[in-house]
């Protein structure tokens, strides 16, 4: 296996040499941003990732990988006679990472969490659902505390959920949509509806023998309905009455964007929240062309898609607008940043999701600026040196960095003799707004207890310090971010609300009072924990945790 490793090293060197050069006419400036290796190994590969309200990140891979590189506490083992790899396992397959201490501890999952889903409930607890084998109908709960561990609810799901997507609803429940062989949805907790409900759209978007509709992209629209995207098209869905409200046109070209032809998607930042009619837009980027999945099984790796499709989902007659990325990407992640930009990160330049089915790692993130004109929205950023292929993850942190982990395109832990060894490391990408040259523009929030619990449709005053000589009121904005459950290139429940500002008042000693009004309903922002930022000339403060009721 020496020859393939040598070839990969040469390819990696060439990509690093050219990563910062213009790849497409839409590139607008030189590469930016920086990388930091946080942990060489956390013992597991971070296939799933969720930031909690105590600045810990929960990560896990799967129980049937065999033994990990992180032992459970002395004397503790997982006994699972149904496990397909190891029935008695004294190693961890989940960790809790302390962001600001840069430390981690082992957690115990009892059943297989492979390719599962989840979301944070309004009380701040992580509810994680499904998986494989004995985990396919489990609901697992993790509460944010220094000594907490996973609790599991057997048969907490009505249907087997593997490769499903979750979203928090305005009433505090989670909806769980789809999964392999599941053309339906259900809710947790089961205090209102206890059964699964058929959703024909999922069977209509299923490509026989390939699927291309797993991990559907689900977003809560501003009218309370759900935008559900699978394969190459979408619907607006009234989940209360089980009615398709609208069918959106197919993305031009009809190329698949869902697993295993995995692209990514994001609900663009919601703005003008006091308006009678609030606009909502969805951006879908990357994926793999038709035929790519089957070709990759034969050892032929087709180039990934280099396009994004953007649509105003609230328009009466919506149409997709196509844009060209500077770098083609499959299995990439899309992360909302506090200033309203989007970071495209991780993934490959050819192939698809699946065991050994991706090639040509895309080492350079790309910044997407949604408010710029078409043709000037993309900026290639500085590259990492670590390929993040299938089963990679990313999550925004409270300090504005993006945590990156995972990558394991193998059926087990595999560290030698392969193109892309199982990756156990954690990195952080720091967008350009964290550069020291912007320190004088960066707001510092003076947190108060009155901000810890906030109500809908209420005006609040946020006090900040800005050491700039002059602060232009129009350049100050308040944003709220809902941390996402990230896996398989989709950040479930991710949401950024731009509250703007109603008044900025100087109070002396570089201190300012910023007035902003919270969203008017749970359709815009379901109740729960959010990160609140103050942004000045595109430079965000460190966030503070707030609970919206």
From TrEMBL:
<keyword id="KW-0732">Signal</keyword>
<dbReference type="InterPro" id="IPR009880">
    <property type="entry name" value="Glyoxal_oxidase_N"/>
</dbReference>
<dbReference type="Pfam" id="PF09118">
    <property type="entry name" value="GO-like_E_set"/>
</dbReference>
<protein>
    <recommendedName>
        <fullName>Aldehyde oxidase GLOX</fullName>
    </recommendedName>
</protein>
<dbReference type="InterPro" id="IPR014756">
    <property type="entry name" value="Ig_E-set"/>
</dbReference>
<dbReference type="GO" id="GO:0005615">
    <property type="term" value="C:extracellular space"/>
</dbReference>
<feature type="domain" description="Galactose oxidase-like Early set">
    <location>
        <begin position="442"/>
        <end position="547"/>
    </location>
</feature>
<dbReference type="GO" id="GO:0016491">
    <property type="term" value="F:oxidoreductase activity"/>
</dbReference>
<feature type="signal peptide">
    <location>
        <begin position="1"/>
        <end position="19"/>
    </location>
</feature>
<dbReference type="InterPro" id="IPR011043">
    <property type="entry name" value="Gal_Oxase/kelch_b-propeller"/>
</dbReference>
<dbReference type="InterPro" id="IPR013783">
    <property type="entry name" value="Ig-like_fold"/>
</dbReference>
<keyword id="KW-0560">Oxidoreductase</keyword>
<dbReference type="InterPro" id="IPR037293">
    <property type="entry name" value="Gal_Oxidase_central_sf"/>
</dbReference>
<keyword id="KW-0964">Secreted</keyword>
<dbReference type="InterPro" id="IPR015202">
    <property type="entry name" value="GO-like_E_set"/>
</dbReference>
<dbReference type="Pfam" id="PF07250">
    <property type="entry name" value="Glyoxal_oxid_N"/>
</dbReference>
<feature type="domain" description="Glyoxal oxidase N-terminal">
    <location>
        <begin position="47"/>
        <end position="433"/>
    </location>
</feature>
